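Per reviewer request, we include the raw input and output of the structure prediction for the construct analysed in the revised manuscript.
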Amino acid sequence: MRFVAMGERFQSLQYCFRLGATTIGSIVIETCKAIWKELAPLHMKLPTREKWKEVLNTRNIVSEVHREVIEIGIQRTLFEEWYTTGVRGLTWELEEDRGSWWSHVEMGPPDAILGVTEAYKRDTNPKKINLGVGAYRDDNGKPFVLPSVKKAEDKLRAKGLDHEYAPIGGSAEFCNLSINLALGDGSEIVKNGLNATLQGISGTGSLRIGGAFLAQFFPGNKEVYLPTPSWGNHTPIFKHSGLAVKQYRYYDPKTCGFDFQGSLQDIAKIPERSIILFHACAHNPTGVDPNPEQWAEISHVVKQKNLFPFFDMAYQGFASGDVAKDAFAVRHFVKEGHEMVLTQSYAKNMGLYGERAGAFSLIAGSKDEAQKTMSQLKIIVRPMYSNPPIHGARIVTEILSDAALKAELTDVKGMADRIISVRAKLRDNLKKEGSQKDWSHITNQIGMFCFTGLNPQQAEKVTKDFSVYLTKDGRISMAGVTSKNVEYLAHAIHEVTNSISNQNDKNIK
């Protein structure tokens, strides 16, 4: 709806409103009030609602709403002050309601994990536990900054560094240190220049670089096969990159462990020249990893099928506390001659969650190929985010390039050991509760996350009855378990699994 104030002084003054015709009658008075305020330079008094009603006669306006133009003359007796300024009438021209540019956009679903934390925050139960958080917490439930990180930051402050842009590929020293951390010092791959490594925006950004590169240049099937289940962000990252996403078996809900045979069978059925993603260690969300012998057999099948491995290594050092042990799968595949891509993140193993420090590497067949792929990776990065952030990369560089600080990186073992310890405490306390279930999978799994085996009904009940917050698939973050709440958590899990199991038994009978 367009408002036009006619008269000697307002011949070109118009106000446009995109309104449906059926709503005009109910809001015309409030509209007029708003318009009147726009005429403030004339210092005219705002008419009362009653006076507007008297002049506009809302009922008559509504009855004529389908006319193209609605005109109302100004009566001098009612609006002497306005009339004398030259205004002789008001006109509403009805226009087609085109709607907003974004009226078609629907509300998106909330993030499943962040939604858990939001619900936790609203809960007033003093015993509430947040097991959805994907960041390490100490035994008091507080964020933990590694001493080596603090010392590295002190060293950086003393240097008085600038804040200039990083190169498109990031810090060369950071990249070199990162690939050596993954493959081991003295790696022949690095010595021979067979890697193209650039700095990424932690794990997520590095995955996105890899997805975009493979979607554009991979000569095989533009399909990536993910383990079932996988990190929730993997699917949207690869789909947004332009790759088709498919799955292969990985987790066995019956044993809460690794479905080795099912995994091998599915991998053997994947079409040749396809992409297959592996979690290098501390599989998220299950905490279930293949053992070295199983990795060796997986590597053999992948080579037989001529598949292209994509390793996501977000937890090196955090899984077992040993960076070399956690890199076994990656190093074994390299040893077996696989060309592949690798993503790294320093969020978990250095606690640099908000610094977004990570790396993407491609292992090529020749130095020439590595150089060419590096040039194309930079072309992909330039319009994506141009340059990576520098502070987190500087912290990582200080730690990995300083022998003393690198030695202190064993702090990550303390974090890993705490997680391993609370796993054992949770299992033992479930036994103390009298649970007849086998909870050995809690300690057989590794890393930050644990697939408890709780079904959606049990997960919902433990939240409702005990204020224990977790995802519907039964995944819990072991970082949220402490020596202070582990007994309460065990009690809650036992009560829920026991009561629902008994109810199901009755239903079967």
